[in-house]
From TrEMBL:
Protein name per the record: chitin deacetylase
Organism: Henningerozyma blattae (strain ATCC 34711 / CBS 6284 / DSM 70876 / NBRC 10599 / NRRL Y-10934 / UCD 77-7) (Yeast)
NodB homology domain: residues covered: 114-303
One Pfam family matching this protein: Polysacc_deac_1
PROSITE patterns: NODB
Xref: PANTHER family: CHITIN DEACETYLASE 1-RELATED (PTHR10587:SF133), GLYCOSYL TRANSFERASE-RELATED (PTHR10587)
GO biological process, one term: ascospore wall assembly
Catalyzed reactions per annotation: [(1->4)-N-acetyl-beta-D-glucosaminyl](n) + n H2O = chitosan + n acetate
Keyword Signal on entry: yes
Keywords attached to this entry: Carbohydrate metabolism, Chitin degradation, Cobalt, Hydrolase, Metal-binding, Polysaccharide degradation, Signal
EC number: 3.5.1.41
Broadest EC class assigned to this enzyme: hydrolase
Gene from which the chain derives: TBLA0B09960
Keyword Hydrolase on entry: yes
Length: 307
């Protein structure tokens, strides 16, 4: 399981489709990049005083947030390779230990679980609510900063229901394609969105598109973050895009297969009504005897929680 095989073309197409499918609208609603604002003024989490002090800003940024230097980060120590684009793995050295290119993982990364468990990326969205209504067990959400500050009420519901929340970065960029400063910005703003909205600092994070290598790893470990990938992909996102090559029967058939040995970590999304529909069917198959990622790994839920 250490070396999973990926189809690069498929990853590339995924990157092209992603913004169309998953609520990240990068369009003319966005104000100019120099005027860091969330698209269409949608942010509803107040921009707190402590964040004004740290950043010198007074409002939430857009999809490409500004890099804010932090004293525990020494840029000169970050491994020097990349950047490279999603799906362009040919020149990525093995020493990079890329998960999406080579299935390579760090010693501290989580990819499976002793009980077969669902995990949900890309929320919170209005579709998340129907999922929460149906869950009687605690599960794991990897939330996007831009969606957190847009839907603080839904974020609070996830918290109140006792689920584990990890970071999925600020705006779902493929991190290996970014500069060191841009990667840091994606991570820090993702954390700040959680802290400003939910008063806690995440311990767990999931790289968008599974895009993690030793450069990304070096940076995220400085924040005390542990990465979570997966060993089962429902392809719910592909089904939701209307791709006729993925049928619901096929998806549920795969889940029945995974359910035979009852172990593993399943990648799903709470970004659309369609993917939530699938999540409910998957839950009906494997039942409520599932674990959060922290329970799978025997670790803390958060690095720190504030009152
Ligand atoms: C988290 O929020 C608290 C206030 O609730 C603040 O004092 C602290 O500096 C913040 N820390 C980070 C890392 O965001």
């Amino acid at each position: 399981m250490r070396f999973l095989k990926f189809n690069f073309l498929y990853l590339f197409l995924l990157s092209l489709l992603y913004n169309k499918l998953f609520a990240l609208e990068e369009n003319d609603e966005l104000v100019e990049a120099t005027d860091f604002k969330v698209a269409n003024g949608k942010a509803r989490t107040p921009f707190p005083d402590w964040l004004k002090r740290i950043t010198g800003l007074y409002q939430w940024p857009g999809l490409d947030p500004p890099y804010i230097p932090l004293d525990f980060i020494d840029l000169s120590k970050i491994p020097d390779f990349g950047p490279y684009s999603l799906g362009f793995c040919a020149n990525v050295p093995r020493e990079a230990c890329s998960f999406d290119c080579h299935g390579c993982m760090g010693h501290d990364e989580i990819f499976t679980c002793r009980k077969l468990s669902q995990t949900f990326d890309d929320g919170p969205t209005p579709a998340t609510l129907r999922l929460l209504d149906s869950l009687d067990h605690e599960t794991t959400f990897f939330n996007l900063g831009v969606n957190i500050v847009e839907h603080p009420d839904i974020y609070h519901r996830i918290q109140d229901d006792g689920h584990l929340i990890g970071s999925h970065t600020w705006s779902h960029r493929y991190l290996p394609a970014l500069s060191n400063k841009e990667i840091i910005a994606q991570i820090e703003w993702g954390i700040w969105a959680m802290n400003a909205t939910g008063h806690h600092i995440p311990k767990w994070w999931r790289p968008p598109y599974g895009g993690i290598d030793n450069r990304v790893r070096h940076i995220t470990r400085l924040f005390g973050l542990q990465a979570v990938v997966w060993n089962h992909d429902t392809l719910d996102w592909k089904f939701a895009s209307g791709d006729p090559s993925v049928s619901l029967e096929e998806i549920l058939g795969r889940v029945h297969d995974w359910n035979r040995d009852k172990t593993g970590l399943i990648l799903e999304h709470d970004s659309k009504e369609t993917t939530v529909d699938i999540a409910l069917r998957v839950k009906d198959i494997i039942g409520e005897d599932q674990l959060t990622v922290a329970e799978c790994a025997g670790g803390n839920d958060y690095i720190r929680e504030y009152d």
